[in-house]
Write a structure and sequence with these properties.
The chain has about 100 residues and is mainly α. The protein has one domain. It is about 75% helix and about 0% strand. It is built from four helices and no strands. The C terminus is likely disordered.
């Protein structure tokens, strides 16, 4: 668990640094009241979206492990909803049936 968490958290940090780099590159345009290039804005928004996804994935992974071990002190309804849906798909009758070959 620790290795996967560290990898996900590391990816979040790296992606966040790319987002900050794009935001800092836009500061001269803001200070001088110049129009910000569209490409820089799109790159910044892309890095922001990737950061949010990676950060949510890190939190989801950590919450799943904590919940499975019974150490989750507070319930997170969005994560619980996703985990409960996934468990329901794994226990479907069609998945439990063995495949016959012959």
């Amino acid at each position: 668990m620790q290795v996967m968490f560290l990898v996900l958290f590391g990816v979040s940090l790296v992606v966040f640094s790319f987002f900050v780099r794009e935001a800092v590159a836009m500061l001269p345009y803001v200070v001088d009241s110049l129009p910000i290039p569209v490409g820089a804005v799109l790159r910044g928004l892309g890095w922001l979206a990737l950061f949010l996804l990676s950060f949510l994935a890190t939190g989801f992974f950590l919450y799943e492990r904590e919940r499975d071990e019974g150490r989750a002190s507070r319930r997170i309804p969005m994560y619980d909803w996703v985990l409960d849906r996934r468990v329901g798909e794994q226990e479907s009758p069609s998945a439990a049936r063995p495949i016959r070959r012959g």
